[in-house]
Amino acid sequence: MSKKTQEIWSYAPAPESSKVVQIKEKYDLYIDGKFVKPSSGKYFKSINPADESEICSIAYGNEKDVDLAVKAARKAYDTVWSKLSAADRGKYIFRIARMMQERSRELAVAESIDSGKTIREARDIDIPLACNHFFYYAGWADKLDEAFPGRKPKSLGVVGQIIPWNFPLLMAAWKIAPALATGNTVVIKPAETTSLTMMILADIIHEAGLPAGVFNVVSGYGDTGASIVNHPDINKIAFTGSTAVGKIIQKAIAGTDKKLTLELGGKSANIIFDDAPIDQAVEGIINGIFFNQGHVCCAGSRLFVQENVAEKVIEKLKHRMASLLVGDPLDKNTDIGAINSKEQFDTIQQYLKIGVNEGSEIYQSPCNLPKKGYYMAPTLFLDVAQSNTIAQEEIFGPVLAIQTFRTIDEVIQKANNTPFGLAAGVWTDKGSRIFNVSSQLRAGVVWANTYNKFDPASPFGGYKESGFGREGGLHGLIPYLKFD
Ligand code: NAP
Ligand code: MG
Question: Model pTM?
Answer without folding.
Answer: 0.97
